[in-house]
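Deliverable D4.2, example record:
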Amino acid sequence: MSTPPYPLWSAGDPPALLASRDLERGELIFPAVPDNSPLAERHEVVAVERVGTVYTFTIIHPGAKSGLAPYALGYVDFPGPVRIFGRLQGKAQPAIGDHYEPRADAAFGYVFESVGA
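Output generated by the structure prediction step:
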């Protein structure tokens, strides 16, 4: 994965995904606004809560010739509120309302891992 132009993870332990909060409206935006953006002065970088809830998902079934196994993609809602799209891992069949937390991934930058998986 190439380096994104915006901060993706906090330096804390454990690291958290970073979003930007609009200073006037309080709205969260993911990913965080880059420092060199004209909008940067209107936003502050904040950590996204550790655990979110699946809003919706789909299972992708790659073609047989690809050799890839089916995988889940979905939107996860976090307090703030902010809704983030990504790959869902840790359960064979996710469900709306399941709890997931982000974790770093070399290929995608982040994925969501089922809590308790």
